[in-house]
């Protein structure tokens, strides 16, 4: 299997959504945000089957995978996808972040974020999260798996959101 050649110091981000999510504007926004931050972005587009995500991660060897979803099925579809990624010998150690509208009822709960961390995500962002926190997380790559991050709308954007348990089970 051919891998993509190394790049000139820029981080390569594999951008995707979950298999049931046909929305594209969230991906366009994130691609522009990431590229303006100096990252190279490979955008897989909407309705990405789990196997395409895994195959792409194996081929591209990104510094991180970012999954964005707005249809409310991120908790279910995301958990399934991350378990498959973590089971893959090549893709298992790539940092993976999910964010957006992760459930169909209201804001992302702490329990939902925690379940996604336990499934294998390195970070979880609600749809109200501050993009500056997301940017700082990506700037810290590569590194140890990080805490899940969610932001409630009442929190000022300058404040760091609540931290959940880390993916390795230690408090953040």
Can you give me a brief rundown of this structure?
With 172 residues, this protein is α/β, with parallel strands linked by helices. It has a single domain, classed as Rossmann fold. The protein contains 5 helices and 7 strands.
How are strands sequenced across the largest beta sheet? 2-1-3-4-5
Class based on secondary structure composition and strand pairing: alpha/beta
CATH class: Alpha Beta
- End-to-end Cα distance, whole Å, is 37 Å
List the secondary-structure elements in sequence, H or E: EHEHEHEHEHEE
Tell me about the biggest sheet? 5 strands, parallel
Mean pLDDT: 79
What does the model show?
This protein has 172 residues and is an alpha/beta fold. The protein has one domain: Cobalamin-binding domain (Rossmann fold, 3-Layer(aba) Sandwich), CATH 3.40.50.280. 33% of the residues lie in helices and 19% in strands. It is built from 5 helices and 7 strands. It has helices at 25-36, 50-60, 74-87, 110-119, 131-139; strands at residues 12-16, 40-43, 64-69, 96-100, 123-126, 147-150, 162-166. The strands form 2 sheets. It has a 5-stranded parallel beta sheet with strand order 2-1-3-4-5, sandwiched between helices. α1 (25-36) links the parallel β1 and β2. The radius of gyration is 15 Å and the shape is globular. The protein starts with 11 loop residues before the first strand and ends in a 6-residue tail after the last strand. Residues 1-6 and 143-172 have low confidence and may be disordered.
